[in-house]
Specification:
Elements: E1 9-10, H1 13-16, E2 21-29, E3 53-59, H2 66-69, E4 70-76, E5 94-100, E6 103-109, E7 116-123, E8 125-127
Parallel strand pairs: 4-7
Antiparallel strand pairs: 1-6, 2-3, 2-5, 3-4, 5-8, 6-7
Biased composition (Low complexity): 129-138, 145-154
Region (Disordered): 129-154
């Protein structure tokens, strides 16, 4: 028997995002869908770890196409992760970040004849950004990534 569905692979941040990563906005609770809009929100809990799930949207400056540059990351933590870096401009909501405990899980994305391999990203928090990964001179890219690949498998 092969690996179980949903297996996560640990990946160094610099390998997954050689040009770095920019947080767009804030980290929010990843709440369950509820048909009753008046019901109080319930935050999702990760089945593998038992930790609460948080979500955030990032931009990968290594991509020119908007659909490929947008990345969704699920944080697994009992407390809300807080970025350790300053915003580019106060109030803009965008800041360079480095993720801790980065893991990826393969998923099938797209529809019909446009299906392809994509990735779901998981992290445990933010690390203090020492230096910009873009200055390392690497130009490798993540294969098969798209905006749809960050969507969770239903």
């Amino acid at each position: 028997m092969g690996m179980e569905r949903g297996h996560r692979f640990e990946v160094p941040f610099e390998q997954a995002f050689p040009a770095g990563l920019v947080l767009n906005g804030q980290v929010e609770p990843d709440n369950e869908f509820q048909e009753n809009r008046n019901a109080p929100p319930r935050q999702k809990v990760d089945e593998a770890t038992g930790l609460r799930r948080w979500k955030a949207v990032f931009s990968d400056p290594g991509y020119a196409k908007e659909a490929e540059a947008s990345i969704k990351v699920i944080f697994l933590s009992d407390v809300q992760p807080v970025p350790t870096t300053e915003e580019f401009m106060p109030g803009c909501g965008m800041r360079p970040v480095v993720l801790e405990g980065l893991q990826v899980s393969p998923v099938v994305t797209g529809q019909d004849k446009f299906k392809r391999l994509g990735w779901m990203y998981f992290a445990t928090g933010f690390a203090a950004a020492q230096s910009s990964p873009a200055s390392s001179g690497k130009s490798a890219r993540r294969g098969g990534e798209s905006a749809a690949s960050s969507a969770e498998a239903a």
